[in-house]
Amino acid sequence: MAASGYRAPVAHAAAASQRAGGSRVPGTGTPSVSRPQSASGAPGAPAATPGAVPAGSSASPGVSGAVGGAGAPAPAALAAKVRTLAPSMTRSMQRVAEAVAGDPAGCAALTVTGLAELTGTSEATVVRTARLLGYPGYRDLRLALAGLAAQQQSGRAPAITTDIAVDDPIADVVAKLAYDEQQTLADTAAGLDTVQLGAAVAALATARRTDVYGIGASGLVAQDLTQKLLRIGLIAHAHSDPHLAVTNAVQLRAGDVAIAITHSGSTGDVIEPLRVAFERGATTVAITGRPDAPVTQYADHVLTTSTARESELRPAAMSSRTSQLLVVDCLFVGVAQRTYETTAPALAASYEALAHRHSPRGGTRR
């Protein structure tokens, strides 16, 4: 949630459309807002409205051209894709998505008309849902459903029901949480765009400076990433104070990197510094559970995390943190690979500096 007292202004649709030249395709890494340019062609004064919502964001995302030339997801990734995108779908599209995820074998046998009748929707809605999930058309979705059904019939044990009740024994709580964490990680890995990830890694590895923004549980993830980068000799700062985040973002320029971590993708206190960094010319990255969320309009690269079900005893902050940490670890390891010649001695030096604090008998402080 945004800090108390923050009010994110909303841009008029016409102005937003003029800046963007059209809305962004979810997950493509193409911001929907153009960087402001000065007369010399360099990033100039800010022109976008803080916290602006993309034009047309109330409409169904990905209705036109959702595929964007990318390959259709593998059958195993279909269920993860549904869980990630369902919250941003219209209710009719959600019914189609839930049907194909819940009964892939049954839906694979249906024509587009049959699935529309089963879900109480229209043929157009079924096709739009297929495209949003990453398939050129319904025929391709049916093929993926058939493949998923075959995998499910290979003898794998049935899934655990992960809803935790107030009176569950602690052993059941452990089993359910462990299963849910595993599923969250698997879904995130299946849905993570490795092209976007590689581009973000390349930017981080050569960045003059990296700023990371996050509030609440996402702020803890931001701290985790920055301490990893600092340990291998890179300059990185984590900001959970929205005022400091913005005043620091003003100092960024081309060659710097700014990363926003927000599960909802609509936290104003995270969107605003990313917008400022974007307008100053920094490379921007969004780590979010909503690929079409407002934060992505200011992101050069979008890394999508799994969206797990919330429950009374398991708020979204718990499962979102798990998936965010996986993405952070992927970023760090990717950077370490690219900078191995400097990373290896930096890690060795940090281990050596702390070795006396981890001796079996406590060691002697020097």
Provide key terms for this protein.
disordered N terminus, five-stranded parallel beta sheet, globular, alpha/beta, 366 residues
What can you see in these coordinates?
α2 crosses α8 and α11 packs parallel to α12. This protein starts with 12 loop residues before the first helix and ends in a 12-residue tail after the last helix. It is built from 14 helices and five strands. The protein has a five-stranded parallel β-sheet with strand order 2-1-3-4-5, sandwiched between helices. With 366 residues, the protein is an alpha/beta fold. 48% of the residues lie in helices and 7% in strands.
Sheet bearing the most strands, described?
Answer: 5 strands, parallel
Strand % is 5-15%
Indicate the structural class.
alpha/beta
Strand order of the largest sheet: 2-1-3-4-5
| Distance N to C terminus | 44 Å
The gist of it:
The protein has helices spanning 13-20, 75-85, 91-102, 104-108, 112-119, 123-132, 138-152, 170-191, 194-205, 217-231, 242-249, 268-279, 316-338, 340-354; strands spanning 210-214, 236-239, 257-261, 283-288, 301-304. By secondary structure, the protein is of the alpha/beta class. It has a five-stranded parallel β-sheet, sandwiched between helices.
